[in-house]
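Local shape tokens:
==================
===
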Amino acid sequence: MSFRKDFYWGGATCANQLEGAWQEGGKGIACPDLCTGGNVSVHKRITPELEKETFYPSHDAVDHYHRYKEDIALFAEMGFKMYRFSIAWTRIFPNGDDEKPNEEGLKFYENIIDECLKYNIEPLVTISHYEVPFNLTKKWNSWVDRRTIDCYLNYCEAIFKRYKGKVKYWLTFNEINSATTKMGAFLNQGILNEIKTMDFHDQVDIPNHRFQGLHHMFVASALATKMAHEISSDYQIGCMQIFIPYYSLTCNPEDELATLQESQITNWFCGDVQCRGKYPSYVWRYFKKNNIEININDEDLEILENGTADFYTFSYYMSSCQTADPTIESGKGNLLGGVPNPNLKASDWGWQIDPIGLRIALNEIYDRYQLPIYVVENGLGAYDEISEDGKIHDEYRIDYLRKHIEQMEEATEDGVDLRGYTTWGCIDIVSASTGELAKRYGFIFVERYDDGTGDFSRHRKDSFYWYKKVIETNGVELESLLK
């Protein structure tokens, strides 16, 4: 078995988790700039006003803003064919609703793109990756208000025109379906209704706001796709989802029904709108059951139908189990809830590891949409340490990635049109879910720690050399170099 000859191997990052320099180059305040740091016992908080002597990890992150040439050179050393990164909206339009784009921000990303092209690395650009200008949140609660669509389209027009001829592949929103859960309201949409305890996960949830915001994001994505195709016939615009295969905890029909209904809303709803161009039938009963009422007009429906995605991308970290039994505690470990699967082991952060689930996801997605697919996030968050010999021995990460790549190979044999694989956090970055630096994903260790110390120096892990060999052999040689 082997991957296609032009398969895109690479890695993925996000601006607010990577760049730092949060007040340099004319950048405005983004929602992640108001999220504090955390650790395994103290998750991040949202502070609508900045607090003195509080650690905000995005403010410095891992200082990619000043070190992008060094970092991209390391990606090239591994042999990357594609690098997925995001543009910080607030570097281009600091307040979100500015009349003109910020030239210094446009130039910064042009430099990053040019650096990638120097090494023949294809840029895959995420336009909005969990980063909404906080000014829009203060003004009208961001995506709840329809005016945010025009702000987003002004932003898209600026970057589509500026990077024409240099960037081919774009993603409109990162993990857009996270907005179907309470977690996505602030993180993804910049929606801030009220916070009970200032804990990141303890917001007052108003489902009407989330789903109205999601509808506005659907319309913005479709209009941006149409705009991109008008600006350049070479542009390919994709959607991006979290995908979590759901298994029934038992073969009880009630568990099966609960599994189906959870998967419909979490996994399929957003993909159906963005790839098929219309709201699926099952969502209306969900809205009725949950007393969700949103404003949709006929023009919106026409826009959705005419602005479907050219390709499908998704993040994959875990599967999840569902049950209708209310006596079984849910939400243990896995990102979007569910109950633990007794057949799977878990990471240091309780995320259950399921390589076969990736093959299942790829088959289900391709069967449903028949579009080219890219796995644009997959990785293991783990504690890494520099050993006495000065190296970082992360055999556990190699084992995790190897098993997932093997299942991607199986999926291609199944007939899935899989075009690329960009691992998450190809260099250590700030964790989005906890605000930690201790939760490391990368092939490159960054000396930056949760107490704010560290010199930001970069060190190649064992997985760096392993992934280099994987890319060189197009996925044929997957065994650890240590064996």
Observations:
- The mean pLDDT is 94.
- The chain has 15 helices and twelve strands.
- The first helix runs from residue 15 to 18.
